[in-house]
Amino acid sequence: MSPSPEVVVHADAELLAAATAARLLTKLVDLQAANGSASVVLTGGGTGIAVLEQLRHSPARDAIDWARLDIYWGDERFVPSADGERNELQAREALLDHVPVDPARVHAMAPSDGVLGDDADAAAAAYAEVLAANAGPGAAVPAFDVLLLGLGGEGHTASIFPESPAAYENERSVVAVRDCPKPPPTRISLTFPAIRQAAEVWLITAGEAKADAVALALSGAGEVQLPVAGARGSQRTLWLVDKAAAGKSSVPSPPRV
Ligand SMILES: O=C(O)[C@H](O)[C@@H](O)[C@H](O)[C@H](O)COP(=O)(O)O
Fold first, then answer.
1. Residue 182 Cα, ligand 1 centroid: separation in angstroms?
2. Cβ proximity of 189 and 121 under 8 Å
3. What family does this belong to (predicted)?
4. CB–CB of 207/151 below 8 Å?
5. 227 Cβ closer than 6 Å to some ligand 1 atom
6. What is the ipTM score, two decimals?
7. Among 11, 47, 64, 194, which residue has the fewest nearby CB atoms (within 10 Å)?
């Protein structure tokens, strides 16, 4: 696992989303130049979707070769495919339906009205198979280049909630989670072992409501009580936060504008 998170603080939520979009764009362009392709794991939540919207509007957007980008999700709400709560639907509206991605390289998690029916465990197992099919030799999960995550006020990330079974999962790469405190209650989520296969994990969060979780995570809280603390990349863990979310942490604030 990477060393302690690097923290970058931006003045406000809008600047955070714009700066993160610019950072992601440059990262993916560099990866494609070096490796011929790139992979990214998207997150749900308002901040994660705001980054995608900013990326859509970037004048440099098509510097990314969208056809050579593998796209995954860190978690999904287990609802019907047309339900606006779906992270995939929100990501498509924000960005993916506006750029020429290769549909075969967009790996969405199953909806509750798909071929697997309303069986969240089957949906989780199916996604684990997708990950394994796209992983390197002997690996169960691709070595994602960049894995984006959001943060809940009580410390959840992806759909790993405090003290939940998913927080204790050390074998499977994908699990169904139920009775989530953040609606909708049933979700599909990557687990810590899967998240930690990513070269870089970027945690993106904004707002005063996240300040306690940010401060606790940066001061050494455990991953079961505060799951975001366990979300580390194999090479790098980057926390991209706004000033309000950093308000209770001893991290340098952005320059006065
Ligand atoms: O599907 C989800 O809900 C997300 O994956 C979840 O982990 C989200 O990122 C956080 O709850 C932050 O959400 P906000 O950015 O909207 O606060």
1. 9
2. no
3. Belongs to the glucosamine/galactosamine-6-phosphate isomerase family. 6-phosphogluconolactonase subfamily.
4. no
5. no
6. 0.98
7. 11
